[in-house]
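Annotated sample (chain length 468).
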Amino acid sequence: MRQEKMRDTVEFFPEVRAADEDALRHIFIRAQMSEFVKEPLLMAYAQGIYYWDIHGQRYLDALSGIYVASVGHNNENVTQAVKDQLDKLAFSPVMHGSNPVAVRLAKKLAELAPGDLNAAKLLTGGSEATEAAIKMARQYHRLKGNATKYKIISRYQSWHGSTLGSLSAGGLASRRAVNEPLAPGFIHVFPPTCYRCPFGKEYPSCELTCASLIGDVIEMEDPSTVAAVMVEPIGHTGGIIDPPEEYLPQLREICDRNDVLLIFDEIITGAGRTGNMFAAETFGVTPDLLCLGKGISGGYAPLSALLCRQHIASTFWGDPKENPGFVEGHTFEGNPISCAAGLATIDEIERRDLLANARAMGEKLRAGLESLRHHNIIGDIRGKGLLLGMEFVKDAATRERFDPPLGVKIGKRALANGLITRFDPHWLALGPPLVVEEEHVDEIVKLLDQSIGEVLAICGSSQQASGQ
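Output written by the structure step:
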């Protein structure tokens, strides 16, 4: 069922024995290892929007790895930029200064970012960026004489990273519970899940309770104790939660009114994913702090960034006897290899007008997902650009969910058929590279159509066999 195999697997990846259970006992991954070793997936090569595993089986990467491979795999221009930088400078003394490549990248991000987001802290991963945002918000208020403003309001079902602070801001019970107790000072509110409104209302007659409630929470907590509101412009782990167009502008007004910073976690939505360089542009709202990661380096080296507005950046300049600057540091921050990858990736996005391609291919992909409604199990299709998701339901009219769920079954069947997606019990998401073409979109839809049909056929046969 999987796609064609690459010729001469042994020459391609001679250490196929790496898939042996004995070898795999030396590594942890995100999955339960006892399950992973039964049928381990080890990728060995990638080109364009395809992967090949160690057995030579091909997979269409409809997820950009994990929203990372923005300009495609094995992009010659980016890899050459990394190779060239390796010949010049691989690491600079971060305790004493920076390097020209990091300065150029920070300046480029400032030029591209909306509004006056014109200063950057360059880091290596999304968790570092969101963690830095939390610290910057608190340190900013302290330097402004408001040391009591430390609380961070974020949303249930959100994911902001794996470090303690970012995990505390996240709202996924399954990932929080195993690490509790978490850091204090984090408050959660319900996300704008219009398809399944937690308040039992319908848009637009709801008057955006999900947004106004954040203002109420700030008031109840006392504005003098709240430092920031942190949100993903489009929530990912809740099932691609695409908010009403008024939601983020309303959050902007609420934060301004209460002297609270607005943080956008654009680790996924940045770098062109929504059809603009930043989702802040897609929604027409400039946050105070903006976190970037994943696609900003195309996956060619670890890179993330925290951008801040001018009035915040200026607060960290001053007499070192009274103002220590932004107290945050990491060994590989501003790494010249990573920054070279970032500059080359941005150049690819601009030179090839991949933002326009993301918008056009996003429309085509959405139309393809709409065509899958003939299976009668798709309740909602959400997202923007090349960040799209669909929710599976047993009854579209009542929005009743499947029990047991079908999302994981469909996602795993798609993987077996050679299609990489992001899947949860009740939904499946897609985020192919920005270089995706029409023929690739057609292939994605075809494989999804096939996979859904196969799962429904199996489930139907099981129900008949059990007499249901």
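Annotation: The radius of gyration is 23 Å.
Annotation: The longest helix spans residues 438-465.
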